[in-house]
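Take one protein record:
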Amino acid sequence: MVKAVILDGHTVKGEDLNFDAIRWLVDLTEYDNTSKEQVIGRVKGAEIVFTNKVIIDKEVMDACPELRFVAVFATGYNVVDVNYAKEKGITVSNVPAYSTDSVVQMTFALILELAVRVSVHAKAVADGEWKSCPYFCFWKTPLTELSGKTLGIIGYGSIGKAVEKVAKAFNMNVLVHNRTPFAGSVELEYLLENSDIVSLHCPLTAKNAKMINGDALAKMKKTAFLINTARGPLVDEQALYQALKNKDIAGAALDVIEKEPMAADNRLAELDNCVITPHIAWATKEARSRLIEISVRNLKGYLDGKPINTVTG
């Protein structure tokens, strides 16, 4: 049986799913997580590697000559040096579009949290503030209605398109900036200047790293919100910290940050106008189930000599 290894399976399967469908097809060794120092030792001897966030680079590929197939448990595949994999004849597959509905749901959970601060008001009630209030209601923060506001979507793949659909159901106006312009899309500067909410839905590339930097944030409205459910390094976190602290923008909600898990000295966590969740937009049980199902199909395609969902640089 072909030898395969899963390097970081815990976040994919959680406590409620398993990799039995993969185990039936290959001789599988499964690890919950793998450090950088452990990668080569665990990959050696395996023809197939499954990875979510563990990096498979030139060093790993050169040290593991048996490696022929890298299956990424994600849509983004920046954890693999796909150009070098192609040189080495190593097939790389990803899992497209499995989490679209879940990410859209999380995007609007974050938008709504900034707009009406449900968590802040629920905590105030739990702390007894409503019981001691002389009025029938109170609010701790400004409350924002989404209807009529403009949502700027950066990245117009399956998630960006689905976010647009929900935004229009809220009666929002929508602006779109895309790496490949199309009829109706706008330049990034125009989107930043005219959006009440800017939401990132693009892949991370060498060209767009820290695209939301000090200059970009300066172009946004002081009343604007920034949402990031895409990739942390799209945002210059130091610039964002200053913009939020100085009230140059009204708020930000991030499901992803530059270094994950979060570093102890990340100052964004200090700000009351910054909401941060631990990279969970993709992680509903339904989405993770689809992720495993598509990964099994990717594996079967490779084993049958007909690989699917292959990616290149």
